[in-house]
Amino acid sequence: MVHEHDHHEANRTRLAVAFAITAAVLVAEVVGAIWTGSLALLVDAAHMLTDSAGLLLALVAASLTLRPATSQRTWGFRRAEVLAAAAQAAILLAVGLYALVEGVRRLMNPPEVSAGGLLVFGVIGLLANLASIVVLAGGRHANLNLRAAFLEVINDALGSVAVIVGAIVIATTGWTRADAVAAILISTLIVPRTVMLLRETGNVLLESTPRGLDLDEVRRHLLGVPHVRGVHDLHASQIASGLPVLSAHVVIDDDCFHDGHAPELLHELQSCVAEHFAISVAHSTFQLEQAGHRPHEGHMHD
């Protein structure tokens, strides 16, 4: 538990540093967008605004996950990271769609854009994003919250590259539509990834079976344990990243309740799912039943 707490604390520190960097660049890009009149820079500034809010949300969620479980919240605030990731993804999706629509509009009616100022602020944004990427890279696989934050700064970095390329094109060719093209490119980078993240967080919130876990295979393994006669009401869900839970009603030989074998059988069932499906003993729950008990349970499913 101490190691896990230290791990969460390290992730919170990463998010705090990334938030500070992103907030500073946001201020610079807002000034730059007003000065240059660039849509790409304005969209990137709006993206930075949502990223700052998203990183702040992620930072709050990371702090909440450090709180211990209570009798009112038996899992603590572990699901806060999933809620934060979903909120970040929803905001990013809105920004991406806005950039796409506005970019198309500006392709048809391009405004004047200051290429020099656009290039300067694009470089500033890229350097800051690279710094945030370095900070968050070590924890990007820790949970959905960190993954969403890392995805945001990656998208920001790609957006800054698009701004820089657009500035160079405008400066060398005078083709001001390059700014709108850069904005559209940023949106095409944002939307698909955010949709995937929204789907993944939605699956967790809807308590869908965790990705990669085949319940038919779980059932086959459980039925292969000696003295097991049936498995029903098999459920699996995910509380947060890396925290799958599983429960089932297991029908066993009647003799197991009389010869004292039931406790040993329970250990075998929990060891089975821990070994083959990486679900810890503490997070697998089995109700052992005699064959005659099932009619007393009312509505059931396999």
Describe this protein with a few key phrases.
2 domains; three-stranded mixed sheet; Alpha-lytic protease prodomain-like; 8 helices; 3 strands; disordered N terminus; mainly alpha; Alpha-Beta Plaits; 302 residues; 65% helix
What is the fold's blueprint, element by element?
Elements: H1 2-36, H2 39-64, H3 80-108, H4 115-137, H5 144-173, H6 177-205, H7 215-223, E1 228-240, E2 243-252, H8 262-277, E3 284-289
Helix pairs in contact: 1-2, 1-4, 2-3, 2-5, 2-6, 3-5, 3-6, 4-5, 5-6
Molecular structure report:
The protein has 302 residues and is mainly α. The chain has two domains: 2-205, Cation efflux protein transmembrane domain (Alpha-lytic protease prodomain-like, Up-down Bundle), CATH 1.20.1510.10; 215-297, 2-Layer Sandwich (Alpha-Beta Plaits). The chain has helices spanning 2-36, 39-64, 80-108, 115-137, 144-173, 177-205, 215-223, 262-277, and strands at residues 228-240, 243-252, 284-289. β1 and β2 (243-252) form a beta hairpin. α1 runs antiparallel to α2, α3 runs antiparallel to α6 and α5 (144-173) runs antiparallel to α6 (177-205). Residues 1-6 have low confidence and may be disordered.
